[in-house]
Amino acid sequence: NKDNHEMLDLIQRAYSPTLIDEKNKLIEFKIKIYPKNDTYPDGGKSTSYLETIQVGNKIEIWTPNTYDFYIEDYCLIKNTIPKQIFQLHYINIICAGSGITPFIRLLAKFRSQTHIYIKFLYFTNNDNEYFTTLLDNTDFWANNITLHIMKNIHISTEIIHTFLFGKEVNPVTFICGPQGLLKSAYDLFINN
């Protein structure tokens, strides 16, 4: 907003780290750079800047002010009063595009836990090949994780029933991605 001059230099974006290594003080992010094009002559405001960062440059990183939930001792804990605790035995993940990044750490954490089963449903189109290549990393996959990549397909009741739900008891479902996916998934879960 060019009328808001004091905000011109402030760019904020939410990115999920794909690796947090406290021992070596390392945080890793997977961020797609959006180049300049006819529709967006400046490219992605934040990613264009991130692409120019040199060793020694500084950027500010901070955590969200509050968490709605967190994972501890293989339980999903919802920050309510009283706290709600859900045992994680069956996890469904539905994501698209950059919505994959919050789950990379989750996959790394749970891939060796044989008592936790994960069904991972990733929606992509030809524009999201950058994130699809993250799924080629075999370090994420183990016998307890099932991956389904849905190319150029929209989420539907049939897909949810075919690929996510079976005889599991009380699965926890995480959804992350563009607004269209979130709205469609929410509508399907609430109405079906």
Give a description of the structure.
- With 192 residues, the protein is an alpha/beta fold.
- Helices cover 22% and strands 25% of the residues.
- The protein is built from five helices and nine strands; from the N terminus they run E-E-H-E-E-E-E-H-E-H-E-H-E-H.
- A four-stranded parallel beta sheet has the order 8-7-6-9, sandwiched between helices. The chain has a three-stranded antiparallel beta sheet with strand order 3-4-5, with no helix packed on it. Strands 1-2 form a two-stranded antiparallel sheet.
- Strand 7, helix 3 and strand 8 form a beta-alpha-beta unit.
- The protein is globular.
- The termini are far apart.
- The N terminus is likely disordered.
Keywords, separated by commas or semicolons:
single chain; 192 residues; alpha/beta; 4-stranded parallel beta sheet; 3-stranded antiparallel beta sheet; 9 strands
